[in-house]
Design a protein that fits this description.
heterodimer, A: 195 residues, alpha/beta, Rossmann fold, globular, B: 319 residues, GMP Synthetase, Chain A, domain 3, 2 domains, five-stranded parallel beta sheet
Chain lengths: 195, 319
């Protein structure tokens, strides 16, 4: 039987997270090939991907470190397929489209209880509440053109989606083992990429 | 689907053949599952071109050199034990910064390996480096959390080529490879032990005496938690050990005042070491650990605390 994910390739833009390689592992276990690339990668090289994922990282997007993201702005402008931003990646995407990235009102490290506000395609089939793992000093808020999909007690915008393009973001980290249903979130995202 | 150990071993073997060719290689094993699995792959791939060494740094677990070399020879991997503890203690004298400790240890290991390589004319150093080692060692945008001795702790110039067959794997995957290749459970299921050994479990300056204290405390933590898990009082933790803190506090022993060190107990559940949660140890087990440590080590330790921090924000080892 031909594997339905065969020939699909996701590119992971590395913002320097300790868990970037975990994203690669999660996709490998979902039988999707992926490549981790630095932010200096020429735009032409990433345009052939079926999906883009922006990793997290220690860079402080809202505090001026967005200038360390190399060609990432061009990727967001020129790549028209599905994109997913994680943590700093979510903040980067949110800020690119006019949101405010700033030190979080309630920074979260380790276990966080997540409440899903809208079960759309990203959270399809998941419970209303579950535990996720986070590690963030900052957050992105007031994101025009984006709909908030999930929140926690301390953080109002834990996941969002664009209203006009297949662009998604999570402040928490679905790629780590302690996040419940994390692999399903990536599987849901990849399902969007296969359409 | 996902990770297939059998295929991994085939690929790693052919990669080793093409990288090392007919040259000689040395591999240093620490007794942990990573290096032992790399040694098992190498001893099948290039059996006649391999020297396996075990460096006793003086910062190993209780009876480690003896237990590991006996178990390795039962597993068909004969080890040459090199005692370098004097060198390690003298180089670490007066050093308190965790990164400085790790870099000194990384350099000392390479010195010992290069010396050992001379006699066997080895040109390659095989290491059991796995993904968290190079991830946490940092590079580019990725911050350095800890310089692992086998990556960030390596000196810039060294006279051996590196061969790292398990570079992309995590601990749970290494265990699958270890089982597939037939390593006994005493290796494949053994808890992780840091490359720099007890050096990163002694906060502040390292001395032979402090190494003795933390070694004994680690042995007690291991025995008690293994017994509790065995008796089904709790799940077996993923990693569990003692840390010697440099702070002294006041106690009372046999009616007399004491002023001595504190031991922190750490036990976590994890899959891959990249995230972790403190174990819920039954109170009576914690009490038993505390009682034993403060009795056996009464000259040095009068207080025991339990670390309840997750990773993040903590790391598993304290340094």
């Amino acid at each position: 039987m031909k594997n339905r994910n065969e020939n699909m390739e996701a590119i992971i833009i590395d913002f320097g997270s300790q868990w970037t390689h975990r994203i690669h592992r999660t996709l490998t276990y979902l039988d999707v090939s992926s490549k981790i690339v630095p932010v200096t990668t020429p735009v032409a090289d990433i345009l052939k991907a079926d999906a883009l994922i922006f990793s997290g990282g220690a860079i402080r997007i809202g505090l001026g470190d967005a200038n360390q993201t190399g060609n990432a702005r061009k990727y967001v402008e020129e790549f028209t397929g599905p994109m997913l931003g994680i943590c700093a990646g979510q903040q980067f995407i949110g800020m690119h489209f006019g949101g405010t990235a700033q030190p979080a009102a309630g920074p979260e490290y380790g276990k966080v209880e997540l409440t899903i506000d809208e079960h759309n395609e990203l959270f399809a089939g998941l419970p209303d509440k579950f535990s996720v793992w986070a590690s963030h000093n900052d957050e992105v808020i007031n994101t025009p053109g984006f709909k908030v999909l999930a929140h926690s007690k301390d953080c109002s915008n834990h996941a969002f989606k664009s209203l006009s393009r297949p662009i998604y973001g999570c402040l928490f980290h679905p790629e780590v083992e302690h996040t419940q249903h994390g692999s399903q979130i990536y599987a849901n995202f990849l399902k969007i990429a296969r359409k | 689907m996902g990770f297939v150990p059998k295929k991994f071993i085939e690929d790693a073997t052919s990669q080793m053949h093409s990288q090392v060719g007919k040259k000689h290689a040395i591999i240093a094993v620490s007794g942990g599952v990573d290096s032992m699995t790399a040694a098992a792959i190498a001893s099948k791939a290039i059996p006649k071109q391999l020297t396996c060494i075990f460096v006793d740094t003086g910062l190993m677990r209780k009876n480690e050199a003896h237990l590991v070399s006996a178990a390795a020879s039962r597993a068909g991997i004969p080890l040459q034990v090199i005692n370098a503890s004097d060198k390690f203690f003298s180089s670490l004298k007066g050093i308190t910064d965790p990164e400085e400790k790790r870099k000194i240890i990384g350099k000392l290991f390479i010195d010992v390996f290069e010396e050992a390589a001379k006699s066997s004319k080895a040109e390659f150093l095989i290491q059991g480096t796995i993904a968290p080692d190079w991830i946490e060692s940092g590079s580019g945008l990725r911050d350095t959390i800890k310089s692992h001795h086998n990556v960030g702790g390596l000196p810039q110039k060294m006279g051996l080529f590196l061969c790292e067959p398990m570079h992309e794997l995590y601990k749970d995957e290494v265990r699958k490879v270890a089982r597939e290749i037939g390593l006994p459970a005493e290796f494949s299921e053994r808890q992780p032990f840091p490359g720099p050994g007890l050096a990163v479990r002694i906060m502040g300056e390292i001395t032979p005496q402090k190494a003795e204290i933390v070694r004994e405390a680690c042995a007690i933590v291991e025995e008690e938690l293994e017994a509790a898990a065995h008796a089904k009082k709790m799940e077996m933790p993923w990693q569990y050990f003692a840390v010697l803190l440099p702070i002294k506090t006041v106690g009372v022993l046999g009616g007399a005042r004491t002023y001595s060190y504190t031991i922190a107990v750490r036990a976590v559940e994890s899959l891959d070491g990249m995230t972790a949660k403190a174990c819920r140890i039954p109170p009576e087990v914690l009490e038993q650990i505390s009682d034993r440590i403060t009795r056996v080590l009464k000259e040095h330790v009068n207080r025991v605390v339990y670390d309840t921090t997750s990773k993040p924000p903590g790391t598993i080892e304290w340094e």
